[in-house]
Structures are given as structure tokens and as C-alpha cells.
């Protein structure tokens, strides 16, 4: 499907005239998963080229961010099914007023959650959200404005942030590690294999990317393929496409 500016404008005008709520195109090919088809045709129901979607999380300790018993949100990234990715795909939609957009859409509960669990290490949450949307969100082709019926300006922005939060809520990294006996400690260390096992179990048997800084665990990426669009589609856990940079043993998981 072509994503022309004229079609985007037409959809926006229709929405203003009718007053109808925006909806993403209904997808019928719900059994065709991204990265698992030979198709190279991006449509509103097929994520391409960014067919792998990664829900990414932080464990920030210097300075600490977010609750002491939870990881925090990094974002949702489209990956080209091979570890490479597109970025900053539409400068015209690189919005910087994310809080205003969510408030105008009546998504105040979502915004409140983000203020607790999607926080910037330097305290500038608004810039962090704008960065994640502009760099990654604009590259998810199945939430392009032309994929909406009765499109309302910036509707896809609210849908994107809601989806990231919904995925994050289903991936409680802190709890999964704790259940495996892996808890923050100033002295204890862990092996890569035991951390991976705990989070692979959480991720429906699919391996995850584990990131470390100076030998301390600080990132996890959960990879998915999607059938349908990125908002309403079916998410399938898949193995990481990126090799961990953590050591095989002696990994620190320091407290916030």
C-alpha cells in the first residue's frame, strides 16, 4: 500500500468532517507472521522491512530510574529480521510534544504510567519519548496514518505508546528474575546462562538479548514477529537476533 501525503490528508479531512473515531485497517492475514514470509511488500497488515519488533527495557542504577522493584521501558523497535534496522523514517511526524498529544487523546492514565515506568536517566522524559517515537515509531509501517480509517491527526502516536506499555506490562523482568533466585545484590554475581534461562522462560521459550555495562546487567530486549498490524496483531515470541555483550559469568545485578 502506498503511503502518499495526499491520502494522509484525505483521511485527516474525512475524520474532521465525520467526527468518527479512527481505526486501523482490519487485517485478514492473521496467520502470516513478519520475518516468516518471502513477501517484500509492506502493507497495513504486514510489517516490513522492520518485521521483528523488540520490546526493550532498562535497569538503570547510576543514577537510578523508576521503582526499585521494576525494570523500566526503553521502547519498541522495528528490526529488519537480521539485526539491522531503519531509523527516523518520517521527519514530518517526529513530534516532540508527546505529553500534549496523549493528554489531548484522553490517555492521561497512560501518561501517568509512563511517568513512573518510562523514565529518562537524565530526567528529561519528554525528550526520551520523542526520541523513541521519532527514531523507531515512525518506522513501523503498519501504523502509518494511511492505514487508518477516519484518521485523526497523531492518532498513531497514542496507539504506539499504549502498545509499548501493554507489552511491557506482560514482561515483568524483575519478577521473572526474582522467581529464579536472581535478585539485585551488591556482592553476588550470576552467570549469563542462568539469567537467560529465567527470561527465556518468561518469553515463551524464546531467547532474549541481554546487555551489560562494565559487567553489570542493564538491558534486556524481547523479540517478536507479528501477524497483522503492530497494534492489534498477534505477537509471537522469537529468539534474539543480537548476541549478548555480557560475560559468561560474574555478571553483577546491582540494586537501584
TrEMBL record:
Pfam families: Ribonuclease_T2
One of the GO BP terms on file: RNA catabolic process
InterPro entries: Ribonuclease_T2_eukaryotic, RNase_T2-like, RNase_T2-like_sf, RNase_T2_His_AS_1, RNase_T2_His_AS_2
Signal peptide: 1-22
PROSITE patterns xrefs: RNASE_T2_1, RNASE_T2_2
Enzyme Commission number, as recorded: 4.6.1.19
A Gene Ontology cellular-component term: extracellular region
Listed GO MF terms: hydrolase activity; ribonuclease T2 activity; RNA binding
Keywords: Disulfide bond, Endonuclease, Glycoprotein, Hydrolase, Lyase, Nuclease, Signal
Active site residues according to the UniProt entry: 74, 132, 136
Enzyme class, first EC level, given as a word: lyase
Family, similarity comment: Belongs to the RNase T2 family.
Protein name: ribonuclease T2
